[in-house]
Amino acid sequence: MGFGVLILLLTDGNLDGFRQMYAFNRSVGLPTALSQVEMTGADVEKLVPLVAKMPDIAHNPYTITEEMLHKAFADLDYYNQHQAFKENE
């Protein structure tokens, strides 16, 4: 669940909330990387279209697109490698 929250925070653009949750996950041993939840990039490619069509996604105050979800996964991967976000964010 904590891993999914990281993705949702990134999708939402809530970088402060993401940093707090990321630090918490690490402090208590919760996953912060795809490999820690036994997923690969290929798994993300299969997962994103399913997540984008989940009924509870419709309850958000804005549309969540597959592109937004892909970006969130990519941002998380980058953050895991660099402990920072790309300069243009």
Please describe the topology of this protein.
Blueprint: H1 2-12, H2 15-28, H3 41-52, H4 66-82
Features:
89 residues, 4 helices, globular
Short description:
The chain is mainly alpha-helical and 89 residues long.
Please give the share of residues in helix. 55-70%
Radius of gyration from the alpha-carbon trace, in angstroms = 13 Å
By secondary-structure content and strand pairing, the structural class works out as mainly alpha
Order of helices and strands: HHHH
Query: Based on CA inertia axes, which overall geometry fits?
Result: globular
**Regions with pLDDT < 50 over 5+ consecutive residues?**
none
Rounded mean pLDDT is 93
Tally of DSSP β-strands: 0
What does the largest sheet look like?
Answer: none
- What is the straight-line distance between the termini? 25 Å
The percentage of residues in β strands lies in under 5%
Count of alpha/pi helices = 4
Write structural notes for this entry.
There is one protein chain. The chain is an all-alpha fold. 61% of the residues lie in helices and 0% in strands. It contains four helices and no strands. It has helices at residues 2-12, 15-28, 41-52, 66-82. Helix 1 crosses helix 4 and helix 3 (41-52) runs antiparallel to helix 4. The relative contact order is 0.16. The mean pLDDT is 93.
